Amino acid sequence: VEASIPEPLREAWRKHSATKFTTKHEFEREFVRHIETTLARSLYNCDELAAYSGAALAFRDRLIIEWNRTQQRQTFSDQKRVYYLSLEFLMGRALDNAMLNVGMKDVARDGLADLGFRIEDAISQEHDAALGNGGLGRLAACFLDSMATLNYPAWGYGLRYRYGIFKQEIVNGYQMEIPDYWLDNNPWEFPRHDITVDIQFYGHVTKYQDENGKTCHSWEAGETVQAVAYDVPIPGYHTKTTNNLRLWSSKASSGEFDFQKFNAGDYESAVADQQIAETISAVLYPNDNLERGKELRLKQQYFWCAASLYDIVRRFKKTKRAWSEFPDQVAIQLNDTHPTLAIVELQRILIDVEGLEWDEAWSIVTGTFGYTNHTVLPEALEKWSVPLMQNLLPRHLQIIYDINLFFLQSVEKRFPNDRDMLSRVSIIEESHPKMVRMAYIAIIGSHKVNGVAELHSDLIKTTIFKDFVTIYGPDRFTNVTNGITPRRWLHQANPELSALIAEKLGGYDFLTDLTLLDRLEVFVDDKKFRREWADIKAKNKLRLARLIKDVTGYSVNPNSLFDVQVKRIHEYKRQQLNIFGVIHRYLSLKAMTPEERKKVVPRVSIFGGKAAPGYWMAKSIIYLINSVAAVVNKDDEIGDLLKVIFIEDYNVSKAEIICPASDISEHISTAGTEASGTSNMKFVLNGGLIIGTCDGANIEITREIGEQNIFLFGNLAEDVEDLRHRHFYGSFQLDPQLKRVFDAIKEGTFGDPSSFTSLISSIEEHGDYYLVSDDFNSYIATHDMVDQEFQNQEEWLAKSITSVARMGFFSMDRVTNEYADIIWNIEPLDIADEA
Ligand code: F55
Fold first, then answer.
1. Cα 442 from Cα 501, distance rounded (Å)
2. 612 CB near ligand 1 (under 6 Å)
């Protein structure tokens, strides 16, 4: 269909083409216009929420203009695009980010002030877009920001969940989960009711011969559900590029709302069928690092992969190129194994629909995909039962069997008579029921597999994917150490620190070239600079103290050492080690004389994070933290010397307040379990020091900032296996200081001890899998060092400044460029140059 306006009329169009506000005056006009017309409100009826909406709509208009232009230019330029497939995008708020990225926040601040609002109040009205669990989802969001900032033609593809990650409330110390319904009045998404894809499920496969006698397969009948596209504009920082995030929403297919049932008077069941279709995109699964094999989750995965691939293939076919050029036009990155079905789906489209031969299709597939692994934890490796897959996706299972057959044949040729190897690397695990190992499909179907920090990338090559290194050689495997976007995690979260750095470096170029931070190092000994640095930290701690007062009711002394651990609650991340350490501190304080107490550095231990709703051990850890807080915080003998705080509902916008306010933060996973970690980078970039194990990106942070600037402790990854073995077959000796902590808990110091028995027995009796006891002594000793060094504020400040100066490596822009070079083979497209 020709939708393009004929040439003679285009002049009139161009004359009226939308324009962007540039001055305060123009912003105010747009703001008021949106409030009076779009929102149908007035100056007599304009609260902070309306002010947020007015500002959001004014900025949204600007984004749309650049977004349309970017998409047109990217289509005309006809160069390779990258598609980032992720079931999670943990975006947080959009307005503040949009203001900063288009460079108009000051204009908006002045304009809002003229009209009676404080910009912070308007900004804080926005509901977080929380379509993710933790690090994996936030990494996807940082990718989007960076890809747009660097002008890469890039799209994100995800699911438009009606409910994001649950909202956490703490009631009597326990976590409660509240649904996060976030879609009402969301100005940042654009429904594309004209962009829909019918997605099939169930049914059966029939074989037939085509006119040349070739055997073909057709997947028939079953149910169909409609995917509807919703687009979200992604502005780059100080660039004209505005990329697209396309989220799919499920809807009953037009045929599915059964008019026969309807006419037969069975209206209710017709509507019920519609509800079933809409369930697919209803809710984000709230597990991190755990796969539970639920059918609805597999449906979500296929629905999203099939819709995205249909869209990508449709766009490619418009170019009229030969199929062999597909990998020159398209790179698809798989964020973990969740989108692995996209590999199978592309192979299906190429052979069943487009009629390519298997081998030709398969080389297109492997040339297109890259796979990022985020975990070595066995319980997180995705497997689907064969019967489940047979029922839901019969044709895909056949293709998986064929992929496996050809793969195993090639392995057998190179390693004859190694039957063990064949069973180890088979996509199908011969269990009851048989299981499909998704990571193996992802490896076999991609040209590159990467881990997210050096240690992690080494571990996947030597443990879980060892055989594949033997088979493919080391080149298929690579490392790209994670990073974070300095726009959100420095400039937006910590505007004063960003401004101070800009003043010293003569501008904000460091926000797009973070290695420029190294020029700060010459100011380390500058007394005035140190004071300014310290004052900013103090202000940020005050801001956090206010948040703590608001959400917990507790007052904390902002001159205390703020010690923070915020992340998903998980045994491997060891919040239990932290709270046992806090109990140890409390017991030590109680045993001191008043004279001794005078020398103690006051401390606030701050926790935050969600537990997966079905993860009992994680929920007990939260309950223990809150039980300790209840006792310690009201102990007058202890006063400010120790406070314990659990900040409920930790999310992206709370992280923006918490990260700039830490003196020390904890990244204390059992060595070898945390793939990378990214909040470690956020804290250091904001001038906090960290205490951590030799795990994930902590190791590279140490290499960059210097080991004198970090508090490392604990056993090394290479010793973990041996230590675990000794817990069972050697003599397991509980650390004596930890025993004292357990005794206090068992005596009822923190309430009914029966609430904590499983937590304690997992260590005392069931092998202490996460080595809490093994690391306890070293952990306590390191905290004593932290206390000592905090008393020398000048030294502390020098460490803080030096560390920030050396954090350039952890910019997401370095990460994006590495993926672009090593995995995607893609170039930036500067929209300004194209104009
Ligand atoms: C979510 C769902 C499933 Cl089924 C499995 C895992 C997750 C998840 O949230 N994983 C996750 O956040 N992984 C983290 O990824 C970060 C980014 O690479 C790493 O920094 C972090 O170490 C890792 O745990």
1. 43
2. no
Nearest CA to ligand 1 atom 21: 677
* The two three-digit tokens of residue 237, written as one number: 């920082």
Regarding the beta carbon of 665 and ligand 1, being less than 6 Å apart is answered no
CA distance 239 to 813: 14
- Ligand 1 center–CA 288 separation, angstroms: 6
Q: Is 374 a catalytic residue?
A: yes
Domain boundary assignment for the chain: 19-77+94-127, 78-93+128-481+821-834, 559-803
Q: What is the pTM of this model?
A: 0.97
Ligand 1: atom nearest CA of 696 is 22
Specify whether 573 is catalytic.
yes
Radius of gyration from C-alpha coordinates of the chain:
28
Distance CA 829, CA 81 (A): 10
- Let me know the angle formed at the C-alpha of 317 by 86 and 200, rounded to the nearest 5 degrees: 55
Instruction: Name the DSSP letter for residue 515.
Output: G
Bridge partners of residue 89, in order along the sequence: 131
Atom 13 in ligand 1: residue holding the nearest Cα: 136
Any idea which fold 78-93+128-481+821-834 has? Rossmann fold (3.40.50)
Distance 234 CA to ligand 1 centre (A): 23
State which CATH number among 3.40.50.2000, 1.20.1640.10, 3.30.70.580, 3.30.420.270 fits the domain covering 559-803: 3.40.50.2000
- Binned at pLDDT 50, 70 and 90, residue 834 comes out as very low
Contact 447, 454 (CB under 8 A): no
Catalytic residue among 678, 693, 749, 782: 678
Atom of ligand 1 nearest to the CA of 134: 12
Which among 62, 487, 491, 573 is annotated as catalytic? 573
From 62, 105, 162, 374, the catalytic residue:
374
Segment 505-518 shows an average pLDDT of: 98
The reply to whether domains 78-93+128-481+821-834 and 559-803 share a CATH topology is: yes
What is the CA(135)–ligand 1 centre distance, in A?
Answer: 5
CA 175–ligand 1 middle distance (angstroms): 21
State yes or no: is 568 an active-site residue: yes
Query: Residue 736 pLDDT > 60, yes or no?
Result: yes
Q: What is the mean pLDDT of residues 379-397?
A: 97
**Position 732 confidence tier, pLDDT thresholds 50, 70, 90:** confident
Report which ligand 1 atom has the smallest distance to the Cα of 382: 4
136 alpha carbon, distance to own chain's centre: 3
- Among candidate residues 750, 758, 742, 771, the one with its CA nearest the CA of residue 616: 758
Q: Which two tokens stand for residue 809?
A: 């490596």
In sequence order, the 6+-apart residues with CB closer than 8 A to the CB of 563 are 603, 604, 605, 606, 662, 663, 664, 665, 666, 786
3-state SS track over 281-302: CCECCCCCCCCCCCHHHHHHHH
pLDDT tens, position by position, 239-264:
999 999 999 999 998 765 566 676 77
- The sheet with strand 477-479 has its strands ordered as 190-201, 223-235, 242-252, 154-159, 81-85, 330-335, 369-372, 448-451, 477-479
